[in-house]
Amino acid sequence: MERTLIIVKPDGVQRGLVGPILSRLEGRGLKLVGLKFLLVPRALAEQHYAIHRDKPFYGELVDFITSAPVALAALEGPGAISVVRSAIGSTNPANADPGTIRGDFALDVLHNLIHASDGPDTAQAELALWFKPDELISWPRDADKWIAVQE
Ligand code: IDP
Ligand code: MG
């Protein structure tokens, strides 16, 4: 079982695609274990994208991700990290396969709708960066019974 982080970027929020994006990932069978909606503080954006600090697009990337609210989700499932990466498609939506989130809804490399952790180490670090431990839920083994109780 794995956990991964996704961020629906400001373009996805502004275009009303939070629901459709989460719906695809939930529909795949991934379980939500954390959910948030926030305007990203600049320092947090800089930490999240620190690996790209020296890239020419770093400034516009941080400007973009802090420009309007984002939706964050922690998702859990077998192979969740690579399952989500393949569901979102290539970084440049112009090269993303049809059927992927970027391949169906985006065209611009900066405004590519969604971030997803790219490996076990980044998933762990990013989940810790964006969620406090008690903001992540552990589903019980008998989750069906749990859902029934909630209804
Ligand atoms: P990823 O989001 O598919 O993991 P990364 O290479 O980690 O892609 O890049 C992080 C983000 O930086 C991308 O999602 C995209 O928004 C932006 N980005 C990547 N390459 C470019 C570029 O060449 N020009 C502008 N923005 C870029
Ligand atoms: Mg990346």
Please tell me about this protein's structure.
- This protein is α+β, with helices and mostly antiparallel strands and 151 residues long.
- It is built from 8 helices and 4 strands, in the order E-H-H-E-H-H-E-H-H-E-H-H.
- It has helices at residues 10-14, 18-27, 42-48, 58-65, 80-88, 101-105, 120-130, 143-150; strands at residues 2-8, 31-38, 70-77, 114-116.
- Strands 2-3-1-4 form a 4-stranded antiparallel sheet.
- The longest helix has 11 residues, at 120-130.
- The protein is globular, with a radius of gyration of 15 Å.
- The relative contact order is 0.23.
- Bound molecules: inosine-5'-diphosphate and magnesium ion.
- Residues 52, 57, 61, 91, 109-110, 112, 115, 118 line the site of inosine-5'-diphosphate (IDP).
**Ligand catalogue:** inosine-5'-diphosphate, magnesium ion
| Helix/strand order | EHHEHHEHHEHH
- Order the strands across the largest sheet as they lie in space: 2-3-1-4
**Class by SSE composition:** alpha+beta
Strand content: 15-25%
Tally the beta strands. 4
Major beta sheet, specifics? 4 strands, antiparallel
Total number of helices: 8
Low-confidence stretches: none
Helix content: 40-55%
Give the overall silhouette: globular
What is the C-alpha radius of gyration, as a whole number of Å?
Answer: 15 Å
Mean pLDDT: 95
Alpha carbon gap, first and last residue: 26 Å
Summarize the structure.
With 151 residues, the protein is an alpha+beta fold.
